[in-house]
Design brief:
Layout (H helix, E strand, L loop, with lengths): L7 H5 L5 H9 L2 H16 L13 H21 L4 H11 L4 H16 L2 H12 L5 E4 L15 E5 L4 E5 L7 E2 L10 E10 L2 E11 L12 E5 L15 E5 L2 E4 L8 E3 L5 E3 L9 H31 L18 H36 L6 H29 L11 H8 L9 H17 L17 H6 L13 H23 L5 H7 L1 H23 L9 H19 L1 H6 L5 H18 L3 H6 L5 H4 L10 H10 L12 H17 L1
Parallel strand pairs: 1-5, 2-5
Antiparallel strand pairs: 2-3, 3-9, 4-8, 5-6, 7-8, 10-11
Helix pairs in contact: 2-3, 3-5, 4-5, 6-7, 6-8, 8-9, 8-10, 9-10, 9-16, 9-17, 10-11, 10-12, 10-16, 12-14, 12-16, 14-16, 16-17, 17-19
The structure holds ligand LB5YH26S and flavin-adenine dinucleotide.
The site of flavin-adenine dinucleotide (FAD) has 21 residues, from strand 1 and helix 12.
Length: about 675
């Protein structure tokens, strides 16, 4: 606006090479270059403008999303973008749309659960967007309990078809994104019935709408489920309702990698575990962890830049007031979120590796790491999305009153992000899955079966059950070994305590239900240990760039010690640390905040977000917040006229009446 960088002094304070950090954040030089190029391309294109979103009504908003999705596809084709570049473009367009589900769930479901033949038939159509698909699992009556789904797929041997039917109101499909108004096809989950026998839930490719005129096919009732939380925000998505009235599909549209139905109607299961039917969810949970770091880093970038711009109190001799970022209370709320964004980035990278590894093993029929992959994706999805949703709201508060304005970008970000705690598995339901996995691991400890992967720490259970932290000075908390021992012993002791309490119940399922709140806490402790340990492992890698390692070490310590402080009840009650050691951890945390403070702006610059992507006046790169806020206010439609519409109808008569009353 005035061409001046109002945050230049802050940028000059940085003690590390920001460009090198950008590459660490992106994951590689190549990833950085792709991301940088595509984000700038989107930002420069008026076709991807998004600042008017909160002002639009539902129909206008939705049509605008359709236009953008079609335009994005046109640009992808024109520019010959690779799959990686196209995904980045959709990411930076930053508008939830049916395409998220088409590329994010429909295509992966066919890839993961379809046979080679099915993939060859359907994937080319989906890749060219000649068909558009959604993921139709959840119903009005059941979401978390997938085994409770009611939609049926009954095999008819006479015609070699499945009859898809919604027998009750509660069996109506409800929520699938892209279903409401756009999808031509869906991967629909239904109970497979052959010869009167129910074989449980399986996936089927079902055509929903005509490819000629988009009208629903016979027997199909479909529509949108209505407005969702937040104006604009996720209402760009057509989450849908769908009912089937005896809709017939050919037999070869059942996804048959896990199990098959023969021409004669015989149900056959391959050696593949039935849980692979849930494979798409494992894939998406893994991507949601990486998304958590994006959403949190975005909110943190806004709050950090604004905290350096905003001044309140503390003026000396008529000089400027203090920057709010210098208040320790502000740092204590903000810097752990900054550290969490980095922590989630690195655990997301690791989880992607784990997922790729398990996928490769599955191809050779090695299913041994599937339970761990399920527990890790479920647990980390839960812990990172909860922390991110809470973190975005904290960032809004960190920006004071201005954070509540839509132009801060934070209300929309929160509204779009918060359902991540529910979709792809309710966070509590998922933590209970982790708890089951942990209880199984503990129960096998005496059997000679060595725990592996993320539970390998349980292999030293005797040590972890009785060790005492040897931290004596605040600086001792900077040793990764001290942090790891405290987190491992806390997680192990909480799991073992649950396992011991479970033995008091004659019926294990009753015990599990009764102790579920404690089990969830044990699962959280285990997941936090994974995040801390993956951050520490990241620091063992070669990290080029002046001062980059030092900054990451500080952030890693902040993340761990902040968790230790927040959950000190766990650490103290399990006897892993003493009250004195907890207090030393807090002293160390304060000193780490001082270390990070001069680098804070550079640490958020390293995310390399364009102003377009951030969509926030408070977070703009040049920090020139006040003129931009002032100017934006005048663009609000309410300011189109000086005297508001409705004055003559509703304000003037009131004022006149008051005048008469006053004269009386
Ligand atoms: C406006 C613009 C602003 C823009 C801002 C943008 C910023 C945004 C940033 C990011 C945005 C990201 C955008 C992403 C878009 C995403 C769109 C939303 C997509 C949502 C899609 C969905 O929600 S799809 C539906 C998902 N549904 C669920 O997840 C259901 C959850 N329930 C289950 O998974 C299961 O039912 C259960 C696991 C809870 C239980 O299953 P079940 O009863 O069958 O199992 P058991 O408990 O009996 O266990 C049996 C056995 O199986 C093992 N197991 C269970 N699940 C799995 C699995 N998945 N894989 C492997 N193994 C599994 C379990 O452990 C048991 O094992 P045992 O050894 O027998 O103990
Ligand atoms: C924005 C959005 C997009 C979505 N997109 C899709 C999509 O594309 N496709 C699709 O199929 N679905 C989709 N869903 C549905 C989503 O996956 C489900 O809402 C989710 O799995 C949670 O299930 P539920 O709604 O049945 O919650 P419920 O299970 O009814 O949860 C209600 C409460 O009960 C608790 N609870 C449930 N079971 C237990 C238990 N065993 N123990 C303890 N507590 C329990 C939960 O913690 C929660 O507090 C979407 C949902 C949203 C919000």
């Amino acid at each position: 606006m005035d061409g001046i960088d109002h945050l230049a002094d802050e940028r000059n304070k940085a003690q590390f090479d920001v460009d090198a950090m950008k590459i660490v954040w992106a994951g590689s030089r190549h990833a950085f270059e792709v991301s940088d190029r595509i984000s700038k391309l989107v930002a420069a294109d008026p076709g991807f403008r998004k600042d008017n979103r909160p002002m639009l009504g539902r129909n206008e908003l939705f049509k605008n999303t359709l236009r953008k999705a079609a335009y994005a596809w046109k640009r992808i084709i024109e520019l010959h973008l690779s799959e990686e570049e196209a995904a980045k473009l959709r990411f930076y367009v930053d508008e939830p749309a049916y395409t998220d589900l088409h590329w994010g769930m429909f295509v992966p479901a066919i890839k993961g659960q379809g046979t080679e033949e099915q993939q060859q038939k359907w994937l080319p159509l989906a890749y060219k967007m000649q068909i558009i698909g959604c993921y139709g699992q959840t119903e009005l009556g059941h979401g978390s309990n997938v085994q409770g789904l009611e939609t049926t797929a009954t095999f008819d041997p006479q015609t070699d078809e499945f009859v898809i039917h919604s027998p009750t109101l509660t069996s109506s499909k409800w929520w699938p994104g892209g279903l409401g108004k756009v999808s031509t096809h869906g991967v629909i989950y239904a109970r497979l019935i052959t010869d009167g026998r129910d074989h449980g839930v399986h996936g089927f490719i079902v055509q929903l709408r005509s490819l000629e005129d988009h009208s629903p096919l016979p027997g199909i009732t479909v529509g949108d489920i209505g407005m969702k939380f937040g104006n604009g925000a996720y209402n760009t998505m057509d989450n849908g309702v769908l009912r089937f009235d005896h809709v017939r599909i050919p037999r070869d549209q059942m996804l048959m990698r896990v199990s098959q139905v023969t021409r004669e109607g015989k149900y056959m299961q391959s050696d593949v575990p039935r849980q692979l039917v849930y494979g798409t969810m494992v894939y998406v949970r893994q991507t949601i962890v990486a998304d958590a770091s994006c959403a949190l880093s975005r909110a943190v970038c806004i709050a950090t830049r604004y905290s350096a711009v905003r001044r309140q109190f503390g003026s000396q001799d008529g000089g400027p007031e203090s920057q709010v970022i210098d208040y320790k209370t502000q740092q204590n709320r903000l810097f752990p979120l900054l550290a969490s964004a980095y922590a989630f980035r690195f655990v997301g990278e690791w989880l992607k590796w784990l997922y790729t590894d398990v996928t490769q093993r599955l191809q050779t029929n090695d299913f041994s790491t599937l339970p761990e992959a399920h527990a890790c994706t479920a647990g980390l999805k839960s812990v990172t999305t909860t922390a991110t949703a809470d973190g975005i709201e904290e960032c809004r508060k960190l920006c004071g009153g201005h954070g509540y304005l839509c132009t801060s970008g934070l209300p929309e970000l929160f509204a779009v992000y918060v359902p991540a705690c529910t979709y792809e598995g309710d966070n509590i339901v998922l933590l209970l899955q982790v708890a089951r996995f942990l209880m199984k691991t503990v129960s096998q400890l005496g059997s000679g079966k060595k725990p592996v992967g993320t539970t390998s720490y349980m292999g030293q259970i005797e040590h972890l059950m009785q060790c005492r932290s040897n931290v004596q000075r605040a600086e001792d908390w900077l040793k990764p070994s001290a942090i790891l021992e405290a987190f491992e012993s806390r997680a192990a002791r909480m799991s073992v305590a649950c396992a011991q309490n479970l033995t008091k119940f004659t019926n294990p399922e009753e015990g599990f239900a009764e102790l579920s709140a404690d089990l969830v806490e044990a699962a959280v402790a285990h997941c936090q240990l994974i995040i801390v340990s993956k951050f520490i492992e990241k620091l063992l890698q070669d990290i080029p760039g002046k001062g980059v390692r030092e900054q990451l070490e500080a952030l890693c310590n902040i993340y761990a010690l902040f968790l230790l402080h927040k959950h000190q009840g766990d650490f103290l009650s399990t006897g892993c640390i003493t009250a004195k050691q907890a207090s030393l951890a807090n002293d160390q945390l304060r000193s780490l905040y001082s270390q990070v403070r001069p680098n804070a702006i550079a640490l958020v610059d390293a995310f390399n977000y364009t102003d377009h992507f951030l969509g926030s006046i408070l977070g703009c790169y040049d920090g020139n917040v006040y003129p931009k806020l002032y100017e934006a206010a005048w663009k609000d439609p309410l300011n189109d006229s000086v005297v508001p519409e409705g004055y003559h109808e509703y304000i003037r008569p009131l004022l006149k009446q008051n005048l008469r009353t006053a004269r009386l």
